């Protein structure tokens, strides 16, 4: 299979036709490791200070199979960035559009929960912050909008209501697990409220690994079906295994954020995740923190039969380790098969470390 050029269509047209849309992956965690983002505030000044680094990461995701270039605007609202917010949002849009133009990709303008909701549930003030970013996205003519990383469905609903003021499709993802949001509202009820607010695409992102995120997606799907509502489903989990985290997700694990490497999902884990997401009925499938370009390639390779083509990055990757059949050592050649990698139980190489941790909160 080889890439098949086609006319650029909108996000809803793609999803309504049954097409698989592959999102992008990790920016904050990845760029922190590469030396371009500072942990703590996790703000995206890099789009101005180091645009080549952001552009390169966008390109890696595009080459791996991403259909969406999401603007690197996480926490880029005025409450977090003061006077820099407008320039950062504009620069992020330009970088995403530049890279999207090199392939069959759409540009999504992204907003996230504010830093003030937990302390001041001032709806007017919070909506003003969302609206400021929306104005930049409208000026830069993004293709659709994503409200992501919301712990509270109330604030997520406010975000959807603001984004619906534009004429662009709205997706919304919450950073919750099966227990629901921080006010104990179930995933199913969260999905219902978000769709009623006007979201066309709903789901979860970040905070939890693939397995937990898919459990939450199943609950969201059930809630929508029970309410007689329809929406497209979207999932973008961590690229880490986090079965031991609590309601707050991986941020409460003692390894967060600088010691998570032993939890990284393999490419084969992600192929399994992509298949399970597809079988669940999710058609917008991507990743968040810890999700590297090779993880995105794994989604594209697993779903190549449905999509009809492989991404450019697969030119250097043999399916299920098939490239190893050229190796000089016979025991390594024996690994050039699907059964080997599907059944592998990878060791951590750390004999005195536990397999699970105890959350700090």
From TrEMBL:
Keyword vocabulary terms for this entry: Metal-binding, Methyltransferase, Transferase, Zinc
Entry GO MF terms: S-methyltransferase activity; zinc ion binding
Necessary cofactors: Zn(2+)
Top-level taxon in the UniProt lineage: Eukaryota
Domain (Hcy-binding) ranges: 9-303
Subunit comment: Homotetramer.
Protein name (Swiss-Prot/TrEMBL): Betaine--homocysteine S-methyltransferase 2
Organism annotation: Gorilla gorilla gorilla (Western lowland gorilla)
